[in-house]
Amino acid sequence: MVVIKPFNVEQWMDTYETQCKYNIAETCCDSVSLTDLVSLAGNVETGAENPITSVLAKKRLDYGHIRGSPSLRTNIAKLYESSTLPVSQSQVLITPGAIAANFLVFYTLVHPCDHIICIHPTYQQLYTVPESLGAKVDLWKLKENDNWSADVTELQKLIKDNTKMIILNNPNNPTGATLPFSVLEGVKSLAEKNNITVLCDEVYAPVFHSSKAPPPPSFMSLGYKNTIVTGSLSKAYSLAGIRIGWIASHNEEIVEIIAAARDYNTISVSQLDDAVAAYALSPGVRENLVERNIKLCEANLEVLDAFVNKYAKSVGYVKPVSGTTAFVKFTRSDGEVVDDVRLCEMVMADAGVLFVPGGHCFGTYEGEFRGYVRIGYACGTAALKQGLEKVGEWIESGGIDKCS
Ligand SMILES: Cc1ncc(COP(=O)(O)O)c(C=O)c1O
Fold first, then answer.
1. Are 378 and 324 in contact (CB under 8 A)?
2. Main-chain dihedrals φ then ψ at residue 374, nearest 5 degrees
3. Ligand 1 pocket member 246 (CB < 6 A)
4. CA of 7 relative to ligand 1 center, distance in Å
5. Which domain holds residue 270?
6. Which domain of life is it from (predicted)?
């Protein structure tokens, strides 16, 4: 039997997401319907047949293309290609979401006795699965006092002779921070020198919305051969319901090894999902979808920021610049940080608002991230406003001081 720690964030969402009135814990940009998707494309005449539903209706529902349709894989390859670095569909594999993409990468490439370095805090899958496969995992800690950035000299000290993989998540869940170009370059040069594979989970790219600095490139664009990037339609593209993700790598040998393992657990993804994903990432649709989501995040972050400023005595954060989440710290009036699980349970019971407890879902030892809460602010603006208003009323009624 596999020995694996519970995936706390997923279990928390499973327990509470159907009970809450205001879900401001979700990490996807507000989801869209097929009708919304088509109207975002903006080129369909009123009354005309919906181009995507008519394609879906006529599809013959066999397995389809084993690795994913050529049109979908080509559209994904285009996300990473530049004039100096071509990327072709043969370097892309389609998976049921990024969660399956990450799992497959680990299942295929991580062995007992390997040493793995993973950025932290991050989505728990990225360090718990390698650990469950018998690898020794060291965490490369992001620094809250440096806008949740990372120090490459610390990474250098973590590298051992048997370091197999460095795992990044850019933009980051839960902090909403971005690893800048200089850090990515530093990781690349250490990985190259020590022959280490880099896995960069980029599910929140390209939702770069609030930094004055230019957005960092995908790790794929740095041109390091042993790079694997994972992504999906769930977060930045508002389409979690189609369960489409991917693995891309410059190293076709890596792609083939992963594809051979994938044969045992995927065959192919749903053809209907594949067709919707190919449409969403097609020219003329993708740009509009991304623009909608960047605007949504900008507007909603203003709402969140106003809330944090209003309650600054008890609520604080490093303002996120990318992605869809903020890591917010709650403090009692006596200066003690609160118990984050208790806080989330109380906010749920008293205000009907769903938050994610940061210590419980992202901490790796007793007390780490105590008092932190992950807020997912890329939901509909009205829901965010209403939810935060309810939390504000709860704070004003002395709620925080009741959390011990
Ligand atoms: C960093 C990260 N990677 C991967 C996933 C999985 O996303 P999906 O399987 O919906 O693509 C999530 C979901 O929250 C995430 O935050």
1. yes
2. -95, 125
3. no
4. 12
5. 37-286
6. Eukaryota
347 belongs to a structural domain:
yes
Residue 334 CA to residue 364 CA, distance in Å, equals: 26
**Residue 10 burial (CB < 10 Å; 0-12/13-18/19+)?**
middle
Q: pLDDT, tens digit, for every residue of 192-226?
A: 999 999 999 999 999 999 999 999 999 999 999 99
Of 31, 123, 168, 362, the one to substitute when testing ligand 1's pocket (max ligand atoms within 8 A of C-beta) is: 123
Query: For residues 85 and 321, which has the higher predicted lDDT (pLDDT)?
Result: 321
**In the predicted structure, residue 388 carries a pLDDT above the cut 70:** yes
How many helices (H) and strands (E) are present in the chain, helices listed first? 14, 13
Query: Quick check: CB of 69 below 6 Å from ligand 1?
Result: no
pLDDT tens-digit series, residues 262-297: 999 999 999 999 999 999 999 999 999 999 999 999
Task: Report the pLDDT averaged over residues 101-127.
Answer: 98
Residue that terminates a domain, selected from 265, 286, 307 = 286
Q: Which atom of ligand 1 is nearest to the CA of 169?
A: 1
Integer Cα distance of 266 and 347 in angstroms: 40
Both tokens of residue 179? 């690893």
Q: 359 CB under 6 A from ligand 1?
A: no
Cβ pair 394, 347 in contact under 8 A: yes
Distance in angstroms between the alpha carbons of the first and the last residue of the chain: 37
Q: Is 100 a member of any domain?
A: yes
H-assigned helices in 17-66: 34-41, 51-58
Residues 304 and 232 in one domain: no
**Location of structure tokens 């022959």:** 195
**pLDDT by residue (tens digit) across 341-358?**
999 999 999 999 999 999
Q: Do 135 and 110 meet the contact criterion of CB atoms below 8 Å apart?
A: yes
d(CA 246, CA 239): 14
Cα 309 to averaged position of ligand 1 atoms, centre (Å):
29
Binding site membership of 238 for ligand 1 (Cβ less than 6 Å): no
Decide if pLDDT at 326 tops 70.
yes
- For residues 220 and 323, membership in a common domain is answered with no
User: What distance in Å separates the CA atoms of residue 1 and residue 147, rounded to the nearest whole number?
Assistant: 41
Are 94 and 48 members of one domain? yes
DSSP 8-class letter at 178? -
The residue whose C-alpha atom lies closest to atom 2 belonging to ligand 1 is 123
